[in-house]
Structures are given as structure tokens and as C-alpha cells.
């Protein structure tokens, strides 16, 4: 009887092994109930890393659900399932920056797709004179001119929260006349990262001020202020909201009398003081003229102080609920002899601690791009871009362009 059972088991094992196709993709790690989307990352890795389990441990830390290998070529792996190309691009760069993988490409099913996070777009001077769009390749660390037109100096650049679209304002001329600001021939352009194309969406004309921000992932708001050319006491403020693709969602005009109302106030962006999962909250309190900025962890009411002094919050970025990046400055509390200063604070929420702090002169702009905190340093022709990897806690790259460069604009003192 025992021999009969053993024979049956042997036959069953033989049939199962024969049923596997030799060219079939073999699943190595997969959690249950995974949605199998079309996009994934293809990477070459050393065979020993794959067989040792080191790679799987690293992938688990990065929240990767699946790892596949081909039986005929275990030096190639497929990493994760991603709903869209943007998500796959960001994850690929994240793994690359932290040396989990050394090279990779993005695929949709079996076709190679473009990598939306391979290049970072910023403003730099062209021919040491005209602010233009530049592209920084984060893999080969090379910089190239992306867009520049005569008579169109770029004043401001705003990337969407998902980093897939950007708007930028150009002008033929801008500056001050007798201490009063002016913008001549202002035009708004849209940059599409998917098609790598630039198109004009709005002609603002002549004005005195421009303020813009992304209200959310899909809505971009601009506030353009101009003066009536015939009655100079009349101020017109045009508030326009665009969607990602450049279509106007709403358009409103507000008129003010400079003599009666004064110069109109601008509605500033409200920063998100709660993390999207609502586990953390930013708090500000003042005691004896000293301002405290803190992070509250709601699960145990533990508090982390990230600043003590006169600096106020200017911008807040929550990254995957694992990191908080905040900019603070003293622009609203300057004494006569003080100059504007900024602090960029990086908080590791997992360890609930400050992992890095940058103290810089002037007002600063930042952009979060996968694992990278990108900020500008210096002023004018001496300004440069710094790429800091907040996951591995090290500087990744530093860019200089003749004439200066910046994240949103070229910094001035």
C-alpha cells in the first residue's frame, strides 16, 4: 500500500513539473489580492543578489508588491504593478537613486515606455541673459536647453503636484519704473511632460503683478493684476483657474479703486497642515513672542518641534506619509536691520525626528521629485540648484548654469 501511495505522489509531482512551461515568467514574490496593472519596471540585477534574498528585502522596504524573474534569464526582473506610467516612473527613480537597482527601463505590457521622471525641468539663463527652460537628466547628470524664445523671458515656473504638467509665465520685459513694478507682454504657457511639448494658453498683456499656485492636483490658479491705462487709479485683478491640460475652468475679474481701496490683497495658497492619511498635523503656537512650529503624531499625541523663533511656515510637502518637508522664513517679522532668511526642514516621520535642516539667506523655492528635495541656493548669476536625497540623507547633484538658475524663478536678493 505504501509503495502504491509513493508511486502516486511521484507521478503527481512529475505531472506538475512537466506542466510548467520553460519560457513562462516565474513569480518570486507576490502579496495576495494584487491588482495587476499594465506598467512595470524592468531591471538587470546580479544573479547572486536575486538568489540571496537581499533584493526581496529591499523591495519590501520600498513597498514593492511583486518581483518576477524569467526562467531563461534570471538577470532580468520585473518589479511591481503600476496603474499608470507616472507612478511607475517615480518608483523607478526612487529605487535607482538609492542604488537598489543600477539600471532600468519602464514597460507597458511588453512595450518600452518613456520615463517621465528621468528629467527635471527648471529655469536657467540662456546665453547668460534670457531666463529659459532647461532639462536635467537625473541618470546621466547632463543638462540641456529645453525651450527658449526671443522676447519671452520666463518669470515663474509651477509644476503640478504629480510633476506631470507645468505652467510658466513669460514677459518681453519686467522690472520696476520709479519703484513701481511692471510686466510687459505677459503670456502663460503649459508644458506637457508626456508629449514634451510647450503651448501658449493665455495672453495677459501688460500688468504689475502675477501670483500663481496649484490649488490641487488638477487645478492651477493665476492672479494677474493690471492698471487701467486711461484711469490709473483703477486696478483690475484677473483670477483664472485652469485644469492640467490648459482649459479654463473659471475666469473672474475684480475691480478696485486705488485711492479708496488701496492696492488689492492677493489670496495666498493655504498649505496642507494635515498629512493625507490624517496621522500627522502641523501646529503653530506663540509663547512670550516666540513662535513654535511643531508636528503632532495623533496616534500617541507625541510632539516634535521643528522650529523655535520668529520664522513662519511658507510651504509644506508631505511625501508618502513618511517624510515632511517644510520651508519657513522671517519675511513677515523683519526688523529694519534684518535680512530675509529661510529654513528648510526635513522630518523623518517613521523615526519622528528631524533628519536634515538647511539654513539659507533669502526666500527659497523647493520641488519634491521622487526621493529628491530640489532647492535653489545663492542669488542672481551665482544661484544654483541642489538635489538632496532625503531617503539616503545625502546630496545627489548640484547644477550651475551661466547666469544663474532656480526651481521656480532665478533668485534675487
Give a summary of the structure in a few sentences.
The chain contains 5 helices and 30 strands. The protein is mainly beta.
Secondary structure class reads mainly beta
Largest sheet: 6 strands, antiparallel
Instruction: Please bin the fraction of helical residues.
Output: 10-25%
The best one-word shape is: globular
Kindly report the spatial arrangement of strands forming the biggest sheet: 1-3-4-2-5-6
Number of helices: 5
Structural notes for this entry:
The N terminus is likely disordered. Strands 1-3-4-2-5-6 form a six-stranded antiparallel β-sheet, covered by helices on one side. Strands 10, 11, 12, 13 and 14 form a five-stranded antiparallel β-sheet that branches. It starts with a helix and ends in a 7-residue tail after the last strand. By secondary structure, the protein is mainly beta. It contains five helices and 30 strands. Among the domains are: 92 residues, Alpha-Beta Plaits, CATH 3.30.70; 121 residues.
